[in-house]
Amino acid sequence: MVEEGGPLIIIGGREDKDGEKLILREVAERVKGGKLVVATVASHQPEGYFDAYRKAFGELGLDRLVELYVHERGETLGADAAALFEDASGIFFTGGDQLRISSQIGDTPVEKMVRRVHLEGGVVAGTSAGASVMSETMLVKGSSQESHRIGDLHMAPGLGLIRDVIIDQHFAERGRIGRLMGAVAQNPRVLGIGIDEDTAIIVEGHRFRVLGSGAVYIVDGSRVTHSNIAEASPERTLSMHDVRLHVLSQDDAFDLNRRCPVAARPD
Amino acid sequence: MVEEGGPLIIIGGREDKDGEKLILREVAERVKGGKLVVATVASHQPEGYFDAYRKAFGELGLDRLVELYVHERGETLGADAAALFEDASGIFFTGGDQLRISSQIGDTPVEKMVRRVHLEGGVVAGTSAGASVMSETMLVKGSSQESHRIGDLHMAPGLGLIRDVIIDQHFAERGRIGRLMGAVAQNPRVLGIGIDEDTAIIVEGHRFRVLGSGAVYIVDGSRVTHSNIAEASPERTLSMHDVRLHVLSQDDAFDLNRRCPVAARPD
Q1: What are the beta bridge partners of residue A56?
Q2: Is residue B153 left, alpha or beta, with left meaning phi > 0 and alpha meaning psi from -120 to 50?
Q3: Where is the active site (chains A, B) (predicted)?
Q4: pLDDT tens digits for A178-219?
Q5: B172: which residues sit within 8 A by CB, 6+ positions away?
Q6: Mean pLDDT of chain A
Q7: What CATH number did the domain enclosing B67 receive?
Q8: CB 3.0–4.6 Å: which of A171, B93, B106, B207 could bond B126 by disulfide?
Q9: Which range of residues forms the domain containing residue A192?
Q10: Residues of B whose CB is below 8 A from A148
């Protein structure tokens, strides 16, 4: 959960940038005409990312955008990168490779500024890799579109803006239920949250609500009675009994403390 | 469940035909050198199907194979097609389109012979479409690799060799958890069983066990506290709270009466 600070908007990738822009509109409304830092650092080839967001946010009336890109970790150690965050009302992490975000900005003045903006009530949004990196431990690699082999999962320390959860994205589109269950099996203390494309969760305090066209899957392992995750052979297919699963869609809400969904009000 | 009759071997498609042939070997062992009817009726273009199985089963020492194919439903109404089943120890339904099986042989002498072989203790196996058609109500069409829209599901009456369940196949490979949950949401009386490729369940009485390289997903909706499946808009994404989910892998077993998994014995 997020104990203090501003809202997190965690997006499963490929959010609508041309139509109604439901999710980006939510980000823009939270930034309230202030300055938004668009961190394209997840990408190995960032060309085009910033322009696409400048256009989309511009159409939503948000013009104060600055780009944070980092070619080498060394650049984040000086004052220039951190200075970009002065006066920022929000930060938006774009997609790419979540390990590139954590390895380039982890434990640097840039990361400190991200936390400061957040603690002072600013919105921190992230899509795709930018969603994964929000959690304490993040999924880096694992099987998609096949059932989970117990040895086939790679995790790494994330930014930890939200705790006790693990986030996966492009969820239904890439058939990732198996790998998220594998991650939860490793330690059911973490709640698995799988977010579809063009879908977001907006986390405020210990609650979030769902926004967008797809679904959000919650994998709760607290009542699991059996799993073979600690078995010797990495080739073994995951076995896991008594998982509690919720599928949430737009306007559904979820209480992270009680691990309990709250249904959408009927239209 | 299967109240009486021989075992059902229900396969998620693409079972190994060249290597160890774990699943086909199980079928061959159950047929015990007797006659196996290979029903290629699910396919619109059956050429090659029978040859592939003749080769694979031949390598397993099973040579008494006959093919059942039906170009038109009228062919199944005469005595010739039914005569193929005389003396059969087993039936194997190959892949294709499950609606082609049910529409061509449903309520014909061929279907009666399938039931007779089964009731007399013969094995009935089916892969892919041949797996789906085993249940009372079968999934025909629904979204893969996206979350389930409540209007986007087509079901049809199947052969009903196993009751109170709905079977889906190519499960992890085609990202079908969403559509199976949608089917279960429609009536949680049915238990959802999603079977991966090269994976099978062997049903005997009210129990089954898992065989093969992938996983089997059990979607139990009996404790669901909320779903929006009966809402007006077919475009709405499925929302479903408190699903009980089990992932089973090789040697895991499941009790269909108690809706309860039984873990594999440790190696």
Answers
A1: none
A2: beta
A3: 128, 170, 197
A4: 999 999 999 999 999 999 999 999 999 999 999 999 999 999
A5: A145, A146, A147, A175, A177, A178, B194, B196, B214, B215, B217
A6: 93
A7: 3.40.50.880
A8: B93
A9: 8-262
A10: 215, 247
Question: Judging by beta carbons within 10 Å of its beta carbon (0-12, 13-18, 19+), is residue B230 exposed, middle or buried?
Answer: exposed
Low-confidence ranges of chain A (pLDDT < 50): 267
Q: How many CB pairs under 8 A join A and B?
A: 126
DSSP state of A66: E
Q: Is the pLDDT of residue B3 over 60?
A: yes
B240/chain A closest Cα distance in angstroms = 5
Give how far B237 is from chain A: nearest CA, Å: 6
State the pTM of this model: 0.90
Only one residue has tokens 């898992």, namely B210
A206's tokens: 């210990």
Give chain B's radius of gyration (CA, Å). 18
**Tokens (6 digits) for B92:** 């194997």
Q: Measured between beta carbons, which residues in chain A are less than 8 angstroms from residue B181?
A: 247
Point out the residue among A145, A237, A240 whose CB comes nearest to the CB of B213: A237
Q: What is the SS3 assignment for A19?
A: coil
Say yes or no for a CB contact (<8 Å) between A146 and B172. Answer: yes
Which tokens hold the place of B183? 């089917």
Q: Is B58 within a domain?
A: yes
Largest Cα span, chain A: 55
**Which pLDDT does position A267 carry in this prediction?**
47
Number of domains in chain B: 1
Task: A258-263: list long-range contacts, CB under 8 Å, 24+ apart.
Answer: A259/A191, A259/A218, A259/A220, A259/A222, A261/A218, A261/B226, A261/B241, A261/B242, A262/A207, A263/B226, A263/B239, A263/B241
Residues 6+ apart with CB under 8 A from B107: none
In a domain, A59, yes or no: yes
Set of chain B residues whose Cβ sits within 8 Å of the Cβ of A180: none
The two three-digit tokens of residue A36, written as one number: 């938004």
In terms of Cβ atoms closer than 10 Å to its own Cβ (0-12, 13-18, 19+), residue A61 is exposed
AA identity, residue B104: Q
Residue B3 domain flag: no
Q: Which residues of B have a catalytic role annotated? A: 128, 170, 197
- The answer to whether A202 and A208 are in contact (CB under 8 A) is yes
Angle between helices A22-31 and A49-59 (to 10 degrees): 80
Query: What sign for the dihedral angle of Cα A226, A229, A230, A231?
Result: positive
What's the ipTM? Answer: 0.84
Question: Could you tell me if A106 and A83 are in contact, meaning their C-beta atoms sit under 8 angstroms apart?
Answer: no
The per-residue pLDDT for A174 is 92
Evaluate whether residue B2 is within a structural domain.
no
Could you tell me the end-to-end alpha-carbon distance of chain A, in angstroms, rounded to an integer? 29
Per the document, the length of chain B is 267
